[in-house]
Amino acid sequence: MSLLDAGTIRTDVADGIATVTFGHPKGNSLPGALLTSLAAAIETAGRNEAAQVIVLRSEGTGPFCAGASFDEFKTVKDAAEGKRFFSGFAQVILAMIRAPKFVVARVQGKTAGGGVGLVAASDYALATSGAALRLSELAVGIGPFVVGPVIEKRIGLGAFAAMAIDADWRSAEWGERHGLYAELLPTADELDRRVAAFTAKLAGFNPEAMRRLKEVTWEGTAGWPALLAARAEISGTLVLSDFTKRAIGA
Length: 250
Prior knowledge:
Number of strands: 8
Number of helices: 11
Largest sheet: 6 strands, mixed
Structural class: alpha/beta
CATH class: Alpha Beta
Radius of gyration: 17 Å
Number of domains: 1
CATH superfamily: 2-enoyl-CoA Hydratase, Chain A, domain 1
């Protein structure tokens, strides 16, 4: 099996909580096929009447998400193919913000690129103190175009621009200070205990009130399907550049 076909998506539902878990052997990165499956899993969890809350988490004790699959970058042959790949992140972001239930992200480790978009698209993110963040796209010749709108909405234009232009790691404390993380926990065990307690509490709240509150927090995103499609086209073109090919090869 190639790395582009590797990876898993699993959904478990218990006690009113749907836990969607994604995994990939390369730092929990997200090839196109896995992005499509992840978006579908979140949409299905949103329709599941047995679940009142969705938890998004990844496998293992290492990175939460390494972002887009660099292996797949190398296979993109034309702009249309590139747009299709980057549209996968748009599908996941839209699934998360359109789900009629709160999405709680459990972030156990570092997250980069598109993974930062997943954190920003969650309604509440809990992380360990080692969960540094990085928008690495500019360093490889593209930019955080598809994930940009959701990160900007979460933390504001100034903080987003700082992350996008200075493509280096930001501490988990920086992420909490700017609103990407709602809470930081010292260890993964404490993170799991807090996620369990917090989501159990949410599962007992009025589902209609939570749905209405979510609609309010994501007001102004009605035009995002077209916006994210246009942004995916930008990234899909830039990934073909000689600069990006050299950077990924290095």
